[in-house]
Amino acid sequence: MPASPRKILHVDMDAFYASVEQRDDPSLRGKPVVVAWRGARSVVCAASYEARVYGVRSAMPAIRAERLCPQAIFVPPDFLRYKAVSRHVREIFARHTDLIEPLSLDEAYLDVTITKTGLPSATATAEAIRTAIREETQLTASAGVAPNKFLAKIASDWNKPDGLFVIRPHQVEAFLAPLEIGRLPGVGKVMEARLRVLGITTVGELRTQSLLELEQRFGRWGRRLHELSWGIDEHSVQPDRPTLQVSAEDTFEHDLTLDELEPHIRRLAEKTWAAHEREYGRVARTVVLKLKTSDFHSLTRSLTPTVRPSSVTELSDIACALRARVDRPAESRYRLVGVGLAGFVDRDSYEAQPDLFAAFPSP
C-alpha cells in the first residue's frame, strides 16, 4: 500500500428505485416490489429486498421475475423522481468533499482524504453521510471505507442493506486473501474459468503466481491481477469524468428486420443528438449502431467519418447506412436497436485541427 493511502468511500443506495417507490407509497412497504413495465420485452430496473428473496434481480426479464415471484407488485419506473432524489444525495456528498465520482444515480466514489467538515476520520464521514441521507430522504445507503476505490466498492456491499464496512490499510492483505477470485473487479466468468483451470479460486491463491507468470499468461491484464491481489489500486476519484459516449436505444414489442428499422433509428438518433448537444465544448466523431438479435446476440457497427456528423440528419443517415455492415441473413430479426455517438474531443481542438483528427480515427 502507498505510504499515505487515500481515504475512499463508496456509497451505494439500497435498492434505490424500489426504495423510493416504497417511501412514496406506504402501502408498498414490506412487500415485494419490482420496478419495471410489465410485458415480454421489459426488464427489471430494480427489486426491493422483499422481492430479492425470491431471486428477482435487476436486468432480469420482467416475465421471469413474475414467474419467480407471482405476488410481486410491479411499478413502472419514474426516472424524474429518481433523478431528483439522486441530486439531493449528491448535495449531501458535496458538503463533505468536492472529489465525487458518480457511477450511476444510486452510487458514487468519494475521496475524503481531506474533507470540508473536519471530521476526525473517513469512518465518521461515512456515518455522517449515511445519517444525513436517512434523515433528509427517508432512504438508506450502505457505505464502504477503504484505502482505494476497488476495496471501497467491495466493502460497501459487505453489510448491505443499511450497513457500513471499513477496511483499514493494515487489514487489506488479510481481508483479500480468502475472497473468491470473482470478487476482483474485471474478473468475469470467462477470466474466472481460466484462473480456475490453473487451480486459482481465491485471491490468496492468485498471490502464489509471480508477476512474470501472470504477465506471460495474460499480458498487461496479468499485471493488473497481480496488483489487485495485493490490494493495490492507484486509480484516483475522478470528478467531472468526460463523457465517452451518448446513446439511445429501444426494445420492440415485435422483432423487426433490418429494412424495418429505419424509422426507429432516425427517432433514436434525434434523442442521441439532443444528448450530444448538451455536451458543451465537446463534439463526437464516431457513430455507433447497436443491434440485438431475436436470440439475444448483441452486434455493434461503428464509423468515424472524415468529417464528424454536424446535424441530426447526418447522424441518422450514417446510422442507417451502418446496417449494410451487418453480415446476417436478410430474414434475420432484431429485438433492439440503439444509436450512439462516441469519440468525444474538445470542440476547439477539433475545429482548429480537423485534418489531425481525420488522420487518426478513433478505435
Automatic annotation (TrEMBL):
Record keywords: Cytoplasm, DNA damage, DNA repair, DNA replication, DNA-binding, DNA-directed DNA polymerase, Magnesium, Metal-binding, Mutator protein, Nucleotidyltransferase, Transferase
Catalytically driven reaction(s): DNA(n) + a 2'-deoxyribonucleoside 5'-triphosphate = DNA(n+1) + diphosphate
A single GO molecular function term of this UniProt record: magnesium ion binding
Record-level GO BP terms: DNA repair; DNA-templated DNA replication; error-prone translesion synthesis; SOS response
Subcellular location field: Cytoplasm
EC identifiers of the protein: 2.7.7.7
Note describing how the cofactor binds: Binds 2 magnesium ions per subunit.
Binding site for Mg(2+): D12, D106
Function summary: Poorly processive, error-prone DNA polymerase involved in untargeted mutagenesis. Copies undamaged DNA at stalled replication forks, which arise in vivo from mismatched or misaligned primer ends. These misaligned primers can be extended by PolIV. Exhibits no 3'-5' exonuclease (proofreading) activity. May be involved in translesional synthesis, in conjunction with the beta clamp from PolIII.
Family the entry assigns: Belongs to the DNA polymerase type-Y family.
Record protein name field: DNA polymerase IV
